Every structure is written in C-alpha cells, then in structure tokens.
Amino acid sequence: MHIDSASREQLQEWEKELSAQYQRICEHELSLDITRGKPSADQLHLADKLDGILNGDYRAADGTDTRNYGGLDGLACARDLGADILQVPSEEVIAGGNSSLTLMYHAVLTGYLFGFAGNTPWRELENPKFLCPVPGYDRHFSICEQLGIGMVNVPMTDSGPDMDAAEELVRNDRDIIGIWCVPKFSNPTGVTYSEDTVDRLAQLGQIANPGFRIFWDNAYAIHDLEQQVNLPSIRSATLANDTADSVIQFASTSKVTFAGSGVAFVSSSPANLASLKQQMQAMTIGPDKVNQLRHSRFFAEFTMLKEHMQKHAEILKPKFACVLEQLEKSFGESDLGEWEKPRGGYFVSFNTRPGCATEVIKLAADAGVKLTPAGATFPYGKDPEDRNIRIAPSFPPLEEVDTAMSVFVLCVKLASVRKQLQ
Ligand code: PLP
C-alpha cells in the first residue's frame, strides 16, 4: 500500500474495505493491552526461588545481620551485583531499594535542592532545563515536569541522541543542567548508543554548566534478546575526558527478578555519591538488606545472572518476532510507517505518517486494544508530529500479542487512508 502515489478513487476504495474489516473486528469485543513494559507472569516465575532462599540465614558474608537497621550504601555483596551489571567498581555503587526510578527522582532532587559536588543548586538558576532525547521514557519526563524543570527535545538517531544538536544547546544555554539517557535498548526506540555518541556525551561536561549531569538510565543493560550488544563505557569515557562528575548511572533488577521487588543501583563519582548520601541520610536509615541478600544469593556468580537473562530472552523473543513480522508483512512495502528492530529491551517504537498516531490509538482503543497514549513518549505528552507509538509486547501471552498487532496494523492503515482523504 503506497498512499502518496494512490489516486483519490483508490484511497476511497481502500477506506471502504478497511472500514468494513474494522467493523468486523469491533464486533469481537476484544480487551487487550500492550501499553506498559511489564514482565509476564512466566518471566516472574523464573525468580520464584528468591522466596525462601535465605532459609533462616540472614547474615551476609561480611557478618552483617541484614534484618537490622543501617548501611546506607547497601550490602557489599549487593553493591558487587550492581557493579557487575553496570560494569563499574563496587566502591562507586550504592545498592538501594526496589526502584531505580526512585533513585533517579532522588538524584534529580539532590541536584535541584542542594547541587551536586558543591555546584549551585539548580533551583537557583533562572530556568533550569534537561535535554530530553525523543521519543523517550515518559516517567523521566514526569520527574522534570513535577519539579518544574524545563525540557528541551533532542531528536534520537539510530546511534543515540543527535549530538550536534545536544552540543549546540549545551554550549549556548547555561541553564541546561541535565540530559536523560537510556543508552542500551533505549525506551522506546531500542537503539544502543554508539562509541562516538558515548564519547561526545562524555565531553559535554567540558562545555556545560559545571552542575550539568548525565542521567544514564541503564535499565536494559543485560536485556539482550540475541547476542550481547556492547555499550561503550561512559565511565571510561568520562575518566578519559576528565568529566567523571558529569555522569550518574542507574540500573535495577526490576526486569530481572521481580518488577516490584528487585534491587536498584546508582553509581557515580565519589563526589556525587557523597552529595546523594547527604540527602539520603535524612530520608532513610538504610535500604531493604534482606532483599539485597536474597538477590546476592540467587545470583552468587555473574554467570548465573547471564544465564537467567537468557531464559527471559527465550520467553520474549517470540513476542518481539511476532510484532516485527506483523509490521514487516503489513508495512514492509509501504509508506505507512517506520520502526526499529530492537535487539533487546522491552519495546518496539513505531512512527506513523505525520498526524496519525492519536487516531490510530483511538481506533485501536475502540476496537478493544489499549496502546500507550499518543504523545506519551514526548515531554509534556506532546508529540509535535503526532507520529510515535510505543508497542510493549512483553506482558500479554503470544496469542494476544498477535491479535493486538492484527488490530494495530489495521488501525494504522485505516487512519492513514482517512487522513490522506481529508
Ligand atoms: N528506566 C526505564 C528506561 C524503564 O523503561 C523503566 C521501566 O519500564 C524503569 C526505568 C523503571 O525502573 P525501576 O523498576 O528500577 O524503577
């Protein structure tokens, strides 16, 4: 189907056929949901042995009684686990509670209220702003929006954020004090940053406001579907550029063990960790060390973690294959949309023709298929071209992903044809 070269008569004919198909689908009264990147029950089962693994032995290898208060940095063995995931030294890791998003929120608060490493608190700037590679992760944007931190869109390319644009913005605006990055299997585009991008990001600290921080949310660090994809080390790149204070890294086991009961990690330079801990110490006496110990026992060796991730991949692969097959079959030879083929992570990002995403999502909802709201992948929920749709196939069973995708492709066709007819 090529819309740009179709005659009006052809478009009208397609519209009639597609509308009839759409009516038939609506009669099925479906109730399917491919909105959020949650692990499926099968994936969660993989970690069920966490329950009971301590078997009454609550002491960590270093003698810590994990049931008691204390240890703001987290257990040593949990910090080792975070260090393995992020490929950084354990001394530079804090093992926290169950959510890396919470750690990100606290890190933004630290920068905003107190400033990192002796730098001016962001709230004292006239108009503090973050660069937001788009499309991106809605919850990053919510943090900024809630704190009144401005957001500036930077387009994503297939090797990471458009670095020419990012450098230009940082050079000309001292109020830019951060950038959100999901560097591996980015949410939602699935892109992994290239070596050149990582290097150029590491150099931003040389030209930016000294309080500038890169929020390196490595949520999908070990979530490869096939062979391992290598993400260049931002830590090495910043050390080489004398900008080690400019980056704060995050990860968690949310999509490794239990999404609601994992362990989250933050890693950064000693100066930034000291700033973070200064804020944290007023907030908590320490994280849930019992859960940290459970995780350390469950993944006694890093190889065990890697084997565990392969089992996740086996469950996820058919679902991603299904999404990609449906897209390829329907749009491979068309001008109706574009998408990336992710090699890991949790999403497939689809771009409709300009001005169609909202209508596709509405049509799908009316046919009983819930998609992430239009604009969700952009700051303030505003997709300037109304094109991006995030598809999250991990949670529903394969048959449901397949049915939902059949509805999705039909809605894309129908919305595109109707738009062209306007
Ligand atoms: N960061 C990204 C990019 C995510 O996609 C998600 C969850 O979807 C999170 C963070 C949430 O992580 P956590 O469960 O550790 O808070």
From TrEMBL:
SUPFAM superfamilies according to UniProt: PLP-dependent transferases (SSF53383)
| Coiled coil region boundaries | none
> Which InterPro entries does the record cross-reference, listed alphabetically?
AspAT_Ic, PyrdxlP-dep_Trfase, PyrdxlP-dep_Trfase_major, PyrdxlP-dep_Trfase_small
Any one GO molecular-function label of the UniProt entry: transaminase activity
Gene3D superfamilies recorded = Aspartate Aminotransferase, domain 1 (3.90.1150.10), Type I PLP-dependent aspartate aminotransferase-like (Major domain) (3.40.640.10)
Q: Which UniProt keywords apply?
A: Aminotransferase, Transferase
Taken from the record, one Pfam family name reads Asp_aminotransf
Question: What is this protein identified as?
Answer: Aminotransferase class I/II-fold pyridoxal phosphate-dependent enzyme
Output the lineage of the source organism. Answer: Bacteria, Pseudomonadati, Pseudomonadota, Gammaproteobacteria, Cellvibrionales
